[in-house]
Amino acid sequence: RKAWWAGLTDEQREEYLAVYPDRIGNLDGIPALVRDAANRDNLQLLMGKLEGRDDDDSATKLAALREIDRQLRAGPKAGEPPMYLLGIGDQGNGRAIVSYGNPDTARNVAAYVPGLNTSLDKEFAEGDLKRARDLSIASNRHGAPTAAITWLGYDAPQSPDGLRSLAVAVDGRAEEGGRAFHEFMGGITATNDHEDPHMTAIGHSYGSRAVGGAAQHPGGIPGVDEIVFVGSPGVGVDSADDLGVGRDHVFVGAAANDVVTKLPSKAESVLGMAGVGFGGPAAAYAFGDLGDRRNDDVWFGRDPASEAFGARRFEVGDGPPLIGRGKPTFDAHSEYFDPELDKASVDNMALIAAGRSHKIKTEDAR
Questions:
Q1: pTM of structure
Q2: Do the beta carbons of residue 348 and residue 317 sit within 8 Å?
Q3: How far apart are CA 222 and CA 135, in angstroms?
Q4: Whole-angstrom Cα distance, residue 115 to residue 323?
Q5: With contact defined as beta carbons under 8 Å apart, do 105 and 317 qualify?
Q6: In what order do the strands lie in the sheet with 198-204?
Q7: What domains are there in the chain, each with its CATH number?
Q8: Which of 138, 147, 252, 330 is an S-S bond match for 311, by CB 3.0 to 4.6 Å?
Q9: Is the peptide bond prior to 160 cis by the omega test (within 30 degrees of 0)?
């Protein structure tokens, strides 16, 4: 695709951009500046399309698109990297791929894949995009300019979402997302100006399972040197050696109070439910333990933070306890990217993305 685009005349490129901004803007292998220009045009077309509808889904996506448009028009503040719109669409739960810093000219590129309940809504436009921006800023502080990308290129499971809520418990959407992410990173590798750019893939929550799926394709994830998992319920493999970059280049952050990183394995859950019927809670615990005698399995395979998995665990904040201030909270699962609430996590991920993983602060595996 890169060679095809390079071989077109200026007139042909202008025609493609004018007639097919939605196709060109979302085509992996096309230069970032071209994708950005096409997607800014397509963004206006999408907003016009959704403004003519009155359903809740359209209203939700329209609010997100308007916020993205506002940020693009406002431009970067002092000390912030410029924003590039590498993908946009309203299919499924919505699509948006935004880079802070030009991924074609940056020596370091990091791409973050979000997980459960991520969709094209205002929370995504204000929150998940900020995660990539903060990561880029933190990496730049270490003297290694880094383009950081938020990649919403798949339908992450939503909850509650009727029977479709069960999608978070199975691998299907992660495998589909993994294929799309694999393709995307192949395009980023092809268009980068550096002979050997340093690239990092970051998966959060269910997004870590999608990154794990991408890494299991032949040859691993194209161009990726480092893989980072945070808040992971498992990544689909039982060893860091199975991810294509070598175990010394696989990193994991797991907060002490993040219950998602401690979900029981599928075998534990099935046997535990059998135990409930057989003899109540005590039997459920005993039966469940039979499903994971090593006590290092989680829902999607071996716990990435476990010693047996073999990744390098880095220091993160504990996060607030599940039961605190009189009500349950899952905030420990979402603070990894917040430089104010979990500076240790952000700094460590920034060092990895900047190619300086030898400086991270580590902690013992589980």
A1: 0.90
A2: no
A3: 21
A4: 23
A5: no
A6: 83-89, 95-100, 146-152, 108-113, 198-204, 224-230, 250-253, 312-313
A7: 81-263+299-359 (3.40.50.1820)
A8: 252
A9: yes
